[in-house]
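Below is how a single chain appears once it has passed through the pipeline. First comes the sequence as given, then the structure the pipeline wrote out for it. We keep one example in the README because the format questions we get most often are answered faster by looking than by reading.
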Amino acid sequence: MRGTDDTPAVERVAAITQRLAVLLRAGVPSPAAWQYLADGLGRSRRDPTAEVVAAAALAARDGVDVPAAIVSAAPDGPAGHAWRSVAAAWSVAIGTGARLGPCLSQLARSQRALGQTQRDIAAALAGPRSTSRLVMVLPAVSLLFGSVLGFDTLGTLFTTGPGLVCLALGVVLSVAAWRWSNRMVNRAVPTTSAPGLEIDLLAIALSSGASYVRARAAVDDALDRCGLADNPEHRPRRGRAPRRTRTAEHDDSAAAVEGVLALSRAAGVPAAELLASEAESVRWDARSQAQRAAAALGTRLMLPLGICILPAFMLVGVAPLMLSILSSTVAGFG
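Resulting structure:
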């Protein structure tokens, strides 16, 4: 499957994950399932998805560590995080004897939800970004217009003291707007490709009949091996898995798990189903928060436009024309 330029990378990973889940649930052995997917993608080294699937297929065929192969071949960015989530799910299922197909299906749904959120963010950014690009072109149009009318706007901007001051201030304001906008966008972009992954993996491990202690150990080991640190700033380099750090997100997950386990003991119902439901709730909450952030982002991005971009346009596009007109007028009176 070849992704288009406007398709989020996470959605491409989700499509492969879902296909793999369907094959496994149909009874296809994992080496054959990976090989079918690799054959369908081809061997292009320019396609990160094809590289990861080919590496997993080779590892499965040779009977070596499939999660390690996935982590080693995973690219950077959201797609890499999504592939490491697949590796963690695979590791937990193999380590506890849980069914892998249902786990991967649920993971694929989560990844598709994140892909849709990324589309929402891109849609929210489209308007303000288009406006910013248009405004940044207007100074050149204004300078050209002044030159056509016979005014030396370019000379005024680049060779006079006031013109150079306007140019310097306009550049500073433009750079400030660019950095300000990027910070806003980075804050709005989701930091994980699998919200509730830790809870979901624990549910999968417990569904195999393993004890809580064994399930917890399997999940922690899988997350460590696959480089899924709780702190999203700790992005591992290719082939490396950093040590996980305890964060507020991890504490929230631990509190949710404790509450579900207490309910399970009190009601006498399987903890795995309750944990799966809790993970689904976490995913929906994360998607709702991301959608709200994307909706608010479109409005907040008007701030750098009004505070920085428009003044930069006035300084670079309008001020040289006015200075040129004023200079010509004074020269005419002289």
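Residues 232 and 254 are 18 Å apart (CA to CA).

See the next section for the split statistics.
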